[in-house]
Amino acid sequence: MPKGKTKIGIIGCGNISGIYFQSGKSFENLEVVACSDLDMEKAGARGAEFGVPACPVQDLLSNPEIEIVVNLTVPKAHAEVNIAALKAGKSAYCEKPFATSREDGRKVMKLARSKGLLVSGAPDTFLGGGIQTCRKLIDDGWIGQPVASTAFMLCHGHETWHPSPEFYYEVGGGPMFDMGPYYLTALVNLLGPVRRVTAATKITFPDRLITSQPKCGKRVKVETPTHIAGVMDFANGVIGTIVTSFDVWSAQVPCIEIYGTEGTMQVPDPNGFGGAIRIHRPGMNSWAEIPLAFGYADNSRGIGVADMAKAMRSGRKQRAGGELAYHVLDIMCAFHDASDAGRHVELESKCERPAPLPLGLTPGSLDD
After folding, report:
1. Is the confidence at residue 172, as pLDDT, over 90?
2. Exposure winner among 51, 101, 143, 354, fewest CB in 10 A?
3. Could you tell me the pTM of the whole model?
């Protein structure tokens, strides 16, 4: 295995890419050495912004220096690009969701195992200071034994601000596949894997009007559920509920709450890395805000790539590894399947809770 920084190539130079380019400077074990996009003008502009050479996708994949491909393409291309990277001998880290179907997710996992390579996937926000502190509080017994959880992600969709929002309403989009990975990954990190689910889903508005530029006035046909209410039986006996929606104008609900035998914890927004943590225990007159015990509380997207690179060098397990990403995909697919069939769905996948980060990490480091 090569020594020194792990060299990465980025495929997909859209809205989210900037923070991943920055990860080559933020994390001591990463270096971004190439970027690509189907739109080479876009790749060239991003590359120039961060001092990274742009090249066609095939040139990036054939670059012998690159060990990890960071896949920031649209969801329906995630599995295809991951497979191309693995066939080129690269490990692959992709944005969420891991794939848009179980079949594609399984293909990626099988190929990675056969090649002896790693796959991993966003979100890595659960490695931030907010949810890592929540993990330690739960593990240390601050709310006793977890009993139940709730999670809510409610908004009215992305067509008012996103420059190209069509894919949010395609199969593989919707609020569950778009935002569900943040919430479900956080919950699996905090509570462990899920055993079975059931759900109800619907499409409230069959078409959407884009009001953002440059596509203002275009109508989008909705192909996937935009309101999903799910129930989860975790393997450890916790009962969880989750509602994700693009059909709600406004709401006053927590992002995530965990209910234990000795108290309740409010978990910060899993789409971020920091945020306020509050706990209420019997005998307390009000909620207590708990300070963060871990770093990476600012936007630290790319920490999952850095963790993958660390795992490649050390041989330890990844925290945001493929088993976790596939389990979250399995949960999301099972919600849709359960609603269609009107029954519970037993999950085919399992995963371990990711290892927590150690306390006291210096900025830009993992596992000091």
Report:
1. no
2. 51
3. 0.96
